[in-house]
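Worked example (supplementary).
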Amino acid sequence: MPVRTLAGDLPTAPPGSVVRLQGWVHRRRELATVTFLVLRDRTGLAQVVVRSGVSRQVPPEETTVEVTGTVTANPQAPGGVEITEPAVTPLTDAAETPPVELWRPALTAALPTLLDHAAVAWRHPAQKARWEVAAASLRGFRATLDATGFTEVCTPKLVGTATESGANVFAVDYFGRPAYLAQSPQLYKQQMVGVFERVYEVGPVFRAELHDTVRHLAEYRSLDVELGFVRDHRDVLAVLRDVLAGMTDAVRGSGAAERLGLEVPEVPAAFPVIHFADALALVGAPADEPDLAPEHERALGEWAMAEHGSDFVAVEGYPMAKRPFYTHPETGSAPGGARWSNSFDLLFRGLELVTGGQRLHRYADYVAAIEARGEDPATYASYLAAFRHGMPPHGGFAIGLERWVARLVGAANLREVTPFPRDLHRLAP
Amino acid sequence: MPVRTLAGDLPTAPPGSVVRLQGWVHRRRELATVTFLVLRDRTGLAQVVVRSGVSRQVPPEETTVEVTGTVTANPQAPGGVEITEPAVTPLTDAAETPPVELWRPALTAALPTLLDHAAVAWRHPAQKARWEVAAASLRGFRATLDATGFTEVCTPKLVGTATESGANVFAVDYFGRPAYLAQSPQLYKQQMVGVFERVYEVGPVFRAELHDTVRHLAEYRSLDVELGFVRDHRDVLAVLRDVLAGMTDAVRGSGAAERLGLEVPEVPAAFPVIHFADALALVGAPADEPDLAPEHERALGEWAMAEHGSDFVAVEGYPMAKRPFYTHPETGSAPGGARWSNSFDLLFRGLELVTGGQRLHRYADYVAAIEARGEDPATYASYLAAFRHGMPPHGGFAIGLERWVARLVGAANLREVTPFPRDLHRLAP
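After joint prediction of all chains, the assembly is encoded as:
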């Protein structure tokens, strides 16, 4: 019995040779004298021609089958090759009719239907390609960091205190005691900078989001980076630039981008950077606005494209008042009263994609920052131990995987690119 | 100002050149006329010689510093090179004395002390190297699978039903409704086989383990693999073999193995395999034993080494009664009454390391298996939908990262190789 041939390798198989394929019946089309069976495997589609004279019994769509047959050139077939004189053997019972039509070029069912039937709907080649963009992004993210001295870390998702932001945490019954699901690996990745200097983590983060919007999920994948011995947030931004270049390269090389017809953005050699105060002025917002509204982000995206030919623009200097306690004030600020920070948001095509910046690194600064927010530094004792015992100037960022993929493929709703989304209403499948 | 030089690159720096180093004061040793400063960065240690005549002020250990000085050959120094005529600039306030002595060759503090002070204790080069073994293992795992047609997936950790085993799940308050933390990605990775054929995931899994032992954690990292179109569990075992070969290669290439003096095992071209019934006979256990006791596993490990020169041995055919409902019975079993399964445990040096096997793939078999355990198939409706709509014969396995690393570095307790372990008693740091 010949070894398995993948659909994607068929165009290079010698015509006349006998091959063995395995996959799903993607489409079965019975004509008067011939049945076309389109077989789907992980690499693509293959056309199988079942003529009269041999058994025309082709199992229903989505049944898994093995097909042994002859490689035959046919310029009309996908890849210029089809399988003739096949023997079709089912690998399991006949499949029931799928809840969504997977053989049509586009998935046209409504989002709730797709989500309810995720295990089947994700088999559609266009939907599958969206996750391939995600998987390629993960590969590019790690490859860039592995090549530049970063160490992957794994930090706990069960935590004892609802720190960092306090709100929106999920409570867990931890052997009868309260625990919480980590909203981010922030406090742990910083501690690991003390060990490895440069760390990254890909993992789930949990937000008990009461916002029922297209851009919020209760569980998502965070691509976290943190690095020591930086001068300021601009060094962090340079790493972010390289990471996004690695991610876009991997997406471009994956094949999924082509199949989806994506315009994968060019990552410039350096991101255009604008200060928050200048950004407000540029978009005509009042100088005392504490944040950028969606229309401001859109206008900045248009400005970046018009002025710099860039899909990306970094806004630096966000007001300290809107940033977490560990945020480093703007270099040169008066002690204790900084208005601006050494932090940034990166906008991609006019939408916020990444938040990052420099963090505090002196123990005394942490104590002051935590007390200034009316909290007790003792709550953070084990985290602060890292700073009492020597930490370098450092900073980092976090990229939301689903948000990145949604922007890249032009999906309006994060749920369209998340295999099993979790939100206020949805905990299944 | 010269760009930063890493300690590991010093041996190749031209003698007489001026370099800039950054790192931690690993050790400060004040002699009568000279102070030795050993600087630690992510790549290793560098010796800095501070002589009388220049400032002898060296900050205390663990303070982060920048050192600018001259590269000078000295056969007695680590790497044959030291830094002379240095300028030492602290990058932060003087560090407090660490709770464990990081400059000693070995960390001698008791485990609870190390765990309580994890952020600092992990800075010790020997401890840090243990995690580098973990990080290298992750790289090798992914590289092997990326090269053989696998797709990385991310499956939800918040789930709606306490399925699979029922016991030992953590309950979460999910917007006022009950939810649970996933004990494994098993049911989701199988569904994704229907989409991508071959999938893997690295992620946290959660077990509300009431066992307070050296080999149980409440949260650990599971390296999950699942693949379709297998003949039986032997195809799964062949992939596991390649994955472990990739992991050991990556560990060998990481440098950490050498620094720790590890004997990284040779992965044989194929694992020796013994049937569960034969294993019982070999170790002299009664033929009706449903499981292997630790002393049986040890004996099998010795047998594998003596007979096959292998650190690994696979035991196949585990009794169906001890395996989860989705387990495929042994090929050729009588319908409905199989005693043995197409599943395996892989033992590494006489300890169970990996569990895996072939899964059921027919919808009707799932319904029967679930009902036979007294459960209602409706509980599993969304999972079973994948099987109603066509799934291939498939199987997979899961490797516990911490367990793998502990075995490799010879740590008796998983907590020794887990940066922030979670168990019955420990939820911090």
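Two points are worth noting when inspecting this output. The CA atoms of residues 284 and 375 of chain B lie 36 Å apart. The mean pLDDT of chain B is 95.
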